[in-house]
Specification:
- The chain is built from 1 helix and 3 strands; from the N terminus they run βββα.
- The protein has 89 residues and is mainly β.
- Helix content is 6%, strand content 38%.
Length: 89
């Protein structure tokens, strides 16, 4: 099983009631639109998502586009912080 870690910039101006957006871009390096077609833009499968104790996934959207003769798929996640711990303490 392949795991990856994504790091995104955060704005904590409204902590602990903040929301953050993170975009992950997928593409096949050294390929072109004639050799590889990324079709996962048709759906977003969250069936293997494991709930996080600190964040709620509010939305997940995807967009497919061509850049430099290569398919790119951007998956944008919007997270909302679970403020219970910070407000309770």
């Amino acid at each position: 099983m392949l795991y990856c870690r994504v790091v995104c910039e955060v704005n904590i101006q409204y902590f602990p009631f903040d929301q953050q957006t993170c975009t992950v871009t997928y593409y096949a390096a050294d390929e072109s639109i004639s050799t590889v077609e990324l079709d996962h833009y048709l759906g977003l499968d969250m069936s293997e998502y494991a709930e996080n104790p600190s964040w709620i996934v509010v939305a997940a959207t995807r967009k497919r586009y061509v850049k430099n003769n290569n398919w790119h798929v951007d998956v944008e996640f919007r997270f909302q912080r679970r403020a219970n711990f910070a407000t309770f303490t």
